[in-house]
Amino acid sequence: MTPAIDGPRLLARLDSLAAIGRTPTGACCRLALSDDDKAGRDQVVAWMRDLGLTVSVDPIGNLFGLRAGRRPDLAPVMTGSHIDTVRTGGAYDGNLGVLAGLEVVAALNDAGVDTERGLVVAVFTDEEGARFAPDMLGSLVFAGGLAPDEALAVRGIDGAVLGDELRRIGYAGTAPLGEPRPHAFVELHIEQGPVLDAEGVRIGAVEDLQGISWQEIRVRGQSNHAGTTPMRLRHDAGYVAAAIACFVRRLASEMGGSQVATVGKVDLVPNLINVIAAQATLTVDLRNTDEALLQAAERRLSDFLDQLAAEEGVAIERRSLARFEPVRFDPAIAARIAAAAAGRGLTHRPMTSGAGHDAQMLSRVCPTAMIFVPSVGGISHNPAEHTAPDDLVAGAGVLLDTLLGLCNEGE
Ligand code: HGY
Ligand code: MN
Ligand code: MN
After folding, report:
1. From the CA of 374, how far away is ligand 2's center (Å)?
2. Which of 14, 273, 309, 332 is the most exposed place for a label (fewest CB within 10 A)?
3. Residue 272 CA, ligand 3 centroid: distance in Å
């Protein structure tokens, strides 16, 4: 019997998971290692067990569900993504990759299909990095790019320590780190950008992913009376934060190409209407597909900070929160994805990912590529995030075909 995606089953699971951590404004909010993240994890583990998967958890909380193959001596194929979200998350970012992986397992089970290699569905810890930086933290540890002890010691934006939270929610596992080392990794994800939707193309075969530079900048000025202090005597951390936000916007438009930049988080102290801010803590997110240009953007920002500190009489400290170079995925896996799309009569195109993904870390340890499906209007990290049900199901079908081919690949 030919395995087939059961669309309604996949869509129902997506809706169920999206309801966990739903906010009054309709967002999906499951910050990494929060109670809502735990609730989401518990639900996915229950589905994994219902599907007969062998569930394991590693010391950083990465979750794996294994469907055994006929050849346990061969490395399994892996798929998956993340289920932690940003505060204003949508229903599909990360969730689609995990639940489509479970749907592939269900389709194989329903059809009574055995595969040569096992198939693992993974849920990686803290992909968003919104609470605990860097992003893709769990898959980075899995790939050997960050020592587990260093990751467990990371302090979040709320002061919590990652390892404490992992233990608190009961997901500090003991499975050997970095295992099973996959034969290949394929991740299905919404594009989170406008390209596929604007072009009316159904599937993206993702060939590469841009570099990421996250910095935390702390400005120390001098609090003073907003009414009495002459402008020439002010050391206004609030103004400096705003100047940095305007600078990075100008930097991106001057550089053009794929350069993007934003200040997403600003905290002022004492944050009162009639007090010149003594301190500002802000974040800068810079990205570019070209490593040399990303470094040039970082240098220009650093020079600007030095100049601003001198002009405004403030102290400026900076701390790197994440720094990942651009990644090229495996062309052969990307070609399989394109062929699978074509085999289903789906329009497809090669793509670059603007967002970071767990796949970029898995590409350090095995042949890896991604499947994108369209995001309506390119909206993501927003409750309005939407992908047409037909596209969600089509993406799962392409994932099924791609994984099946890889699972029956010999040595
Ligand atoms: O920041 C990113 O690109 C991803 O959503 N973590
Ligand atoms: Mn994601
Ligand atoms: Mn995201």
Report:
1. 14
2. 273
3. 32
For strands 203-209 and 327-328, give the pairing: antiparallel
Which residues does ligand 1 sit against, CB inside 6 Å? 127-129, 135, 355-356
Task: Determine the average pLDDT of the residues in 221-232.
Answer: 98
Atom of ligand 1 nearest to the CA of 129: 6
In tens, the pLDDT along 320-344 reads 999 999 999 999 999 999 999 999 9
Question: Could you tell me the two tokens for 291?
Answer: 């490593």
Domain with CATH 3.40.630.10 in the chain: 7-209+326-407
CATH class of 211-324: alpha beta
CA of 355 relative to ligand 3 center, distance in Å: 7
Both structure tokens of 189: 């994800």
> Does the 7-209+326-407 domain belong in CATH 3.40.630.10?
yes
Distance CA 295, CA 292 (A): 5
Cis preceding linkage at 180, omega within 30? yes
Which ligand 1 atom minimizes the distance to the CA of 136? 6
- pLDDT tens digits for range 368-391: 999 999 999 999 999 999 999 999
Q: Which atom of ligand 1 is nearest to the CA of 127?
A: 6
> Per-residue pLDDT tens for 236-285?
999 999 999 999 999 999 999 999 999 999 999 999 999 999 999 999 99
Nearest CA to ligand 1 atom 2: 356
Q: Give start-end residues of each CATH 3.30.70.360 domain in the chain.
A: 211-324
- Taking CA atoms only, the protein residue closest to ligand 1 atom 1 is 356
Confidence of residue 411 (pLDDT cuts 50, 70, 90): confident
pLDDT of amino acid 143: 98
Strands (E), 221-331: 224-225, 260-262, 266-269, 275-276, 279-288, 315-324, 327-328
CA 239 to ligand 1 centroid distance, Å: 28
Q: Is the separation of the CB atoms in 80 and 168 below 8 Å?
A: no
Q: Per-residue pLDDT tens for 275-322?
A: 999 999 999 999 999 999 999 999 999 999 999 999 999 999 999 999
